[in-house]
Write a structure and sequence with these properties.
The complex is a heterodimer. Chain A has helices at residues 7-20, 37-42, 44-57, 97-110; strands at residues 29-34, 63-68, 80-83, 89-92, 118-122. Chain A is of the alpha+beta class. Chain B has five domains: 6-113, Glutaredoxin, CATH 3.40.30; 138-341, 3-Layer(aba) Sandwich (Rossmann fold), CATH 3.40.50.11540; 351-434, Roll (Ubiquitin-like (UB roll)); 439-527, NADH-ubiquinone oxidoreductase 51kDa subunit, iron-sulphur binding domain (de novo design (two linked rop proteins), Up-down Bundle), CATH 1.20.1440; 541-596, Alpha-Beta Plaits (2-Layer Sandwich). Chain B is built from 23 helices and 19 strands. Chain B has a five-stranded mixed beta sheet with strand order 12-11-15-13-14. A four-stranded mixed beta sheet of chain B has the order 2-1-3-4, covered by helices on one side. Chain B has a four-stranded parallel beta sheet with strand order 9-8-7-10, with helices on both faces. In chain B, helix 11 (241-257) links the parallel strand 8 and strand 9 (272-278). Classes of the chains: A alpha+beta, B alpha/beta.
């Protein structure tokens, strides 16, 4: 580690450090991936891995990624929900890894729902 | 930097280490690797959460789900179900003792919900060996603020205005102490952190050192700046190896980053800190004895004045602050005195950490605002006494404190109210007793502690505690005579008035406070030769009830001294000459035929 010679050095290091702690807070934006047996069989693991990579690539820190069990619509797995504050909870179906960057770029960053993949909405 | 989806916090405090968390950590590492989740979930070993009884504790973020008493065999299920499939394992949730509800979330458990954590805010939330995590929680922001915009006088005044009082027991105003030292003549001054925690049952200082070491260092830096010291010591007892290791790591990190050493962050302020390991004498928690110990002398107190703030370590002005006191300091500087003073009572500001133990459902470390009632701590946070047992007393303040009976439960707790009630804040140990605890026996226990820890320098303490203990032992053995109580009271008051240091002056407190509230129990021991709680062995005996005993022979087989005899299917007899009153037969008798009288 480099020596902190001024106050600015300390502030800069703190800013970096904040990023390491985001996983310990519930963030504004939540992404929930269905990880029942059905989800895993349909490739949910790969979707999560791709999602984490995409978030890292874009250096997005205010998103919590959580998993949930089977919600009954196994035929449409992989199911991926995006919840933005004060907006509808949108469920995407049959998500494959190559859809992830579109969902992140359009919906999570810009707030535009990717209509083609939507299978359901829950009004907030 | 890898982007982790979730963090798995495993408690690595001393309590959880002894209940096996190291094996659990290894098991989690292996299981995550096996399931290829090791790049998705990060394992963080934290300091103590205070809920040691339920350890090893595991908390999963971002959900905030807490698992209790996690064993190696549970690891596979947690990883497979929760981390993989997102289905929390309800079997390992905390169960509220009264409602029997399973509570998944850490923040929603009564034990934590009713607390207000200022000193302990990072304990159990960060990895104490990771500097960045402390920094991310606002660490060293107070140092930054102080060095860039505050003079030493302003720092002292802020701490004084906040009303912070010494958390080690005495309750002296911290700001005033700093002011004395700052004004004392001389350029060489010292700051000492007193981490010689020795009260039986109290472990808040250890938790703070283990769980948030940089916070203590930051507190010391602020104190050093305020009084004009450039050298400091942390006096930590050698029985706290983990605390010493974590503090050592923190000091090395701070030195490497230039937060300790010369011209910190480009300012004129310089400070070096050293650890001094104490050899485990209780009296070394007394400040003059502590100074003697650091100087390499025998750890015995000297008379005051001169106070250490004027003439302390190596004859130089010295401030000695308790760990918990220092833990509060960065918050005062960062958020201002008013915010700190908004919590608490008129003369006792802020919060206090209590170590809650004894006969109640939830035990552990709790930080509550001053002015809370004992009833709230015991019943709402502690979950109350066990089923069918009646609350009798609460012992507060360790060997220097006293016992409070049920009618004092609604007393708002602060430094002054406790002294009025005949107890003392002490370092904050709270031992709850039910009707199976004997008050005379408790007083005897604490006296035997102070007697063996007395350094022997002054006669009132050396001889006085010995004589008090002899009388108490006689009373417990059923040989008390009328007049013993008056004799003890006279002796106790003379020790209080004449002993040299705090240890001696407060040593009679356990007797005086119990005489104040539980005199009838002493009288029962002396006059009726009865121990109402059935603890003092000489004052009760066992009897086998002829009508209930069916002659199953269980007791005769289990008795370690062969005191029980009898034919099969006939009522048995107990030979009181041989009986050692171990009570095993009572526990094992399936028919409850053995009675205690």
């Amino acid at each position: 580690m480099n020596k902190l010679l001024t106050m600015e050095d300390l502030r800069a290091l703190r800013k970096d450090a904040l990023g390491e702690m985001t996983a310990r807070q519930t963030c504004d934006i939540q992404v929930i991936v269905g990880m029942g047996t059905c989800g895993i069989a349909a490739g949910a693991r790969e979707v999560v891995t791709e999602l984490l990579k995409e978030l890292q690539r874009r250096n997005i820190k205010n998103v919590s990624v959580t998993k949930t069990g089977c919600i009954g619509m196994c035929e449409r797995e992989v199911l991926l929900d995006v919840v933005r504050p004060n907006e509808d909870r949108v469920t995407y179906g049959r998500v494959v890894p190559r859809d992830v960057s579109r969902i992140v770029g359009e919906h999570i960053v810009n707030g535009r729902v990717v209509e083609g993949l939507v299978v359901g909405r829950i009004t907030s | 930097m890898v982007f982790y989806r979730g963090h798995l916090l495993i408690c690595g405090g001393t309590g959880c280490v002894s209940s096996g968390c190291k094996d659990v950590i290894i098991a989690f590492q292996e299981e995550l690797r096996k399931k290829k989740l090791d790049e998705e979930i990060k394992i963080v070993e934290t300091g103590c959460h205070g809920f040691c009884e339920k350890g090893p504790l595991v908390i999963v973020y971002p959900e905030g789900v807490m698992y209790c008493r996690v064993e190696v065999k549970d690891v596979q299920e947690i990883v497979g179900e929760h981390l993989m499939k997102g289905r929390p394992v309800s079997r390992l949730f905390f169960t509220e003792p009264l409602s029997l509800d399973k509570v998944p979330k850490y923040q929603e458990i009564d034990f934590y919900r009713k607390q207000q954590r200022i000193a302990l805010r990072n304990c159990g939330y960060i990895d104490p060996e990771n500097f960045n995590e402390y920094l991310a929680r606002g660490g060293y922001a107070a140092l930054e603020k102080m060095l860039s915009e505050m003079t030493p006088e302003e720092v002292t005044n802020a701490v004084k205005a906040a009303g912070l009082r010494g958390r080690g027991g005495g309750g002296f105003s911290t700001g005033t102490k700093w002011e004395f030292c700052a004004k004392a003549a001389g350029t060489k001054k010292y700051i000492i952190c007193n981490a010689d925690e020795g009260d039986p049952g109290a472990f808040m200082d250890r938790s703070l050192l283990e769980g948030d070491p940089h916070n203590i260092l930051e507190g010391m830096m602020i104190a050093a700046y305020a009084i004009g010291a450039n050298e400091g010591y942390l006096y930590i007892r050698a029985e706290y190896p983990l605390a010493i290791k974590r503090i050592q790591t923190a000091i090395s990190q701070a030195e490497e980053l230039g937060l300790l050493g010369k011209n910190i962050l480009g300012s004129n302020f310089s400070l070096t800190l050293k650890i001094k390991e104490g050899a485990g004498a209780f009296v070394c928690g007394e400040e003059t004895a502590l100074i003697a110990s650091i100087e390499g002398e025998r750890g015995i107190p000297r008379s005051r004045p001169p106070f250490p703030a004027v003439k302390g370590l190596f004859g130089k002005p010295t401030v000695i602050n308790n760990v918990e006191t220092l833990a509060n300091v960065p918050q005062i500087i960062l958020y201002g005195a008013d915010k700190f003073a908004a919590v608490g009572t008129e003369r006792s500001k802020g919060t206090k950490v209590f170590a809650l133990t004894g006969k109640l459902r939830n035990t552990g470390l709790v930080e509550v605002p001053m002015g809370i009632t004992m009833r709230e701590i015991i019943y709402e946070i502690g979950g109350g006494t066990f089923e069918g047992k009646k609350f009798k007393a609460v012992q507060i303040g360790g060997p220097s404190g006293g016992c409070l009976p049920e009618n004092k439960l609604d007393l708002p707790i602060d430094y002054d109210s406790l002294i009025q009630a005949g107890a003392m804040m002490g370092s904050g140990g709270l031992v709850v007793m039910d009707d199976e605890s004997c008050i005379v026996d408790v007083a005897r226990y604490f006296l035997s502690f102070t007697r063996s820890e007395s350094c022997g320098k002054c006669t009132p303490c050396r001889e006085g505690t010995m004589r008090l203990l002899e009388i108490l032992e006689r009373i417990c053995a059923g040989q008390g005579v009328p007049g013993d109580i008056a004799k003890m009271e006279k002796l106790a008051y003379s020790i209080k008035a004449s002993a040299l240091c705090g240890l001696g002056q407060t040593a009679p407190n356990p007797i005086l406070s119990t005489l104040l509230h539980f005199r009838h129990e002493y009288e029962a021991h002396i006059n009726d030769k009865k121990c109402p709680a059935g603890v003092c062995q000489a004052l009760f005996y066992y009897r086998i009830d002829d009508h209930t005993c069916v002659g199953c022979t269980v007791c005769a087989k289990i008795c370690p001294v062969g005191a029980i005899s009898g034919e099969r299917k006939q009522a048995h007899q107990l030979d009181m000459v041989k009986c050692i009153k171990c009570g095993v037969c009572v526990e094992r008798c399936p028919f409850h035929a053995i009675v205690k009288e």
